[in-house]
Specification:
Chain A is α/β, with parallel strands linked by helices. Helices cover 26% and strands 19% of the residues of chain A. In chain B, strands 2, 3, 4, 5, 6, 7, 8 and 14 form an 8-stranded mixed β-sheet that branches. A 5-stranded mixed β-sheet of chain B has the order 11-13-12-15-16, sandwiched between helices. A two-stranded antiparallel sheet of chain B has the order 1-9. The chains are: A alpha/beta (345), B alpha/beta (348).
Chain lengths: 345, 348
């Protein structure tokens, strides 16, 4: 077995800080292996992480690493990619960090689609702080802040992250190892914002409270809850493991042009002088006429002029050509009314 | 070429002259113009990058990350936005990221009076984030100085390896004056930090030793780290003991004012001596002790309820009189009558 990925790990700092049975070790190791397989090194790769157990991952990598404040990991990673497009930016973080305190940044960074890869160690709990309910904790799960079962439905990352094309969202678990490795590789080579939601176990602070005795029992639970779907998908259902991706932005067909009304020749129309026009101001049941660009329009059916001599600054029975410059609307608004005559010079 | 320039534009141009190549911000009165300038400038100069972030938290984090990635970066905001940036400000001190935050002050707390100037964010530059840290802060009082100090702030940031703060107020941001920006000489300190991708370093907000290893339960390491930070800041700040002192012979009264207040009371220079600190933090202790020694009355005129006055009192170990110009009211007549009252001893 090729063990050269160990060059990417700070082995002098081992043993690491995580509990026995934790899934983060598997995430760290497999990401390191995938990075090594792609031939990336400390010269062209940066690891960025947030706060929490998963946030410690960057500190164990032999790369330039940035350990950001809680939740700010995506903004930081995006900026690093903006300034240094030559660097590969790998984000190692967790569900609480990305989806809860960094939820706003998740929405907006994924929208801006920078070329970064996000690995989310999704253990459905706040692990480092002692096992509080998190944004992805399943409904009904018992935690120390939801002793009678979590009251609210979890955030569905798969739905949030597949809103804007292009997108790449993969869901996998630390138990389905081959699928897990494949997702990591696909995400790393994806051009654009790619997100791998790695369902991971936290046996010490979550699993035991849920009734599991060992990490292995949690893995079997993952196997029961999820099944792998092969091939390219647009979306993943809640019990599916796989890759949902879309590359091309949907092309919106250009709006059809509205057929222009045939030009009415001015000659055949009834001529009005300004004096005559002034009488049609809507008072005493008379129609409301206004002049625009040499034509006289009947605005009686306009809801804005109804029963009034004027609509804001527009006065009925006047030549309103000059008003158009100041109006917040275009001249289409006038043209939809029937033409009843022309203005005599 | 001489032309009319606003304070906001001068700050932006000064930053660019100081070497800035990244701006992240979020629209907020009265610094939205800096954001707009950055957007325009980045259209014309692709090497200058720009992000309109989703909030000030992201803007501040982005500014510091850009600095780690190798760009001289800055952000601009006002009081409420600056409150959101505090988290990043603390982080910037621990990861040693040189960058500049512009805070154009308006009346607070919270939304306060968004269009009215104030000088009430002084404690926030120093005490807004958790823990001890010592940012260098400058406060200009003219458009020309906005330009010069924006560039100087970048130099101080590189020397202190930390975020530096450039203060302004809503008046100064929108003050138009005739200046020739191209003609102002500026020295530029080169980048002091290797960009990312040059090794195996860990930039962490957790306290760490020299090797970048996280050490979270050793008081000795923390102490050594903090004293080193403080020393570095003192050394950097020592290069910029900026102030303006207008002594008036035979005057027994010294007025201390800065920013827009110093402009308002400048016409009183024929009656009183005036001291204007330009480096607001760290407080100019030595200079204040030196200058205030010979005066019987010391009056601090500022746009807050005695924020700078309390620092002056600490520095010179002596009570001073205060004239707080609150709610955006910086009328000379009113200040003059307050000074008279102070000198008669009828006000606090």
């Amino acid at each position: 077995m090729d063990r050269s990925y160990k060059e990417l790990l700070k082995l002098r700092r081992f043993p690491h800080t995580w509990c026995p049975g934790c899934g983060i070790g598997a995430v760290l190791k497999n990401v390191a292996m995938a990075v090594k397989d792609l031939g990336w090194s400390d010269k062209n790769t940066v690891a960025v992480s947030g706060i929490g157990c998963s946030g410690r991952m960057s500190g164990y990598m032999n790369l330039d690493a940035v350990h950001t404040p809680h939740g700010r990991v995506l903004t930081s990673a995006e900026t690093i990619k903006t300034i240094r497009p030559d660097l590969n930016v790998v984000v190692l973080s967790g569900d609480g960090d990305l989806a809860s305190i960094g939820g706003n940044h998740l929405l907006h960074t994924s929208r801006r689609n920078p070329d970064i890869t996000v690995f989310c160690n999704d253990n459905e709990i706040y692990g480092l702080t002692g096992g509080q309910a998190g944004p992805t904790t399943p409904k009904g799960a018992k935690t120390i802040t939801s002793p009678r079962g979590e009251r609210y439905a979890p955030l569905r990352l798969g739905h949030i992250l597949t809103q804007h094309v292009p997108y790449f969202y993969a869901r996998t678990t630390v138990y389905h190892l081959n699928h897990f490795k494949k997702c990591i590789h696909e995400a790393l080579v994806w051009k654009g914002f790619s997100f791998v939601d790695i369902i991971s176990d936290c046996i010490e602070l979550n699993g035991r409270r849920l009734g599991f005795k060992t990490a292995h029992q949690m893995f079997k639970w993952f196997d029961e809850r999820f099944h792998i779907v092969e091939g390219k998908r647009d979306h993943l259902r809640d019990d599916e493991l796989g890759i949902a991706s879309a590359m091309e932005e949907e092309v919106v067909p250009p709006a059809e042009k509205v057929a222009e009304k045939p030009e009415i020749p001015l000659e055949g129309l009834k001529p009005f002088t300004l004096e005559e026009l002034r009488r049609f101001d809507g008072t005493a049941g008379k129609p409301i006429y206004i002049a625009y660009k040499g034509k006289v329009f009947d605005l009686s059916s306009s809801p804005l002029f109804q029963g009034e001599k004027r609509m804001r600054c527009h006065i009925a029975g006047k030549d309103l050509t000059k008003d158009m410059d100041m109006a917040p609307h275009g001249e289409d608004l006038v043209f939809k009314f029937p033409v009843v005559g022309r203005l005599k010079e | 070429m001489k032309r009319l320039v606003s304070g906001n534009e001068a700050i932006f141009q000064g930053a660019v002259r100081g070497g800035a190549s990244y701006f992240a911000g979020y629209p907020i009165s009265p610094t939205s113009e800096i954001l707009q300038q950055a957007a325009l400038y980045s259209e014309e100069n692709p090497e200058f990058r720009f992000l309109q972030a989703e909030d000030e938290i992201a803007a501040a984090i982005s500014t510091i990350s850009a600095s780690l990635a190798g760009a001289k970066s800055f952000s601009a905001t006002s009081g409420p936005g600056f409150s959101l940036m505090q988290e990043a400000l603390g982080w910037g001190h621990v990861v040693e990221a040189p960058c500049v935050f512009v805070n154009s002050m308006r009346v607070g707390p919270s939304t306060g009076m968004p269009t009215q100037p104030a000088q009430s964010d002084l404690l926030q530059i120093k005490g807004g984030s958790a823990g001890d840290y010592y940012p260098i802060a400058f406060y200009p009082n003219s458009v020309r100085e906005c330009f010069v100090l924006a560039a100087t702030a970048f130099n101080a940031a590189e020397e202190s390896l930390s975020p530096t703060i450039l203060l302004a107020d809503a008046f100064l941001s929108h003050l138009y004056e005739i200046v020739d920006l191209e003609d102002i000489p500026i020295d530029i300190t080169p980048r002091s930090k290797e960009p990312l991708g040059k090794g195996q370093r860990l930039f962490t907000g957790t306290v760490h030793d020299k090797m970048g290893n996280v050490k979270t339960n050793d008081p000795e390491i923390y102490r050594r780290w903090l004293w080193e930070l403080k020393d570095r800041h003192d050394r950097a700040a020592g290069k910029y003991p900026l102030f303006e002192y207008l002594p008036r012979r035979n005057s027994e009264t010294l007025l201390i004012a800065f920013g827009i207040t110093s402009r308002v009371i400048s016409s009183l220079k024929d009656r009183f001596s005036i001291f204007r600190p330009i480096r607001i933090y760290p407080v100019l202790e030595r200079e204040l002790i030196e200058v205030t020694r010979s005066y019987r009355h010391i009056i601090v005129v500022e746009g807050s309820d005695g924020q700078y006055a309390s620092w002056v009192e600490c520095a010179i170990c002596r009570k001073v009189m205060r004239i707080p110009c609150l709610g955006g009211g910086f009328k000379l007549n009113w200040i003059q009558s307050q000074i008279e009252e102070c000198l008669r001893g009828t006000t606090r």
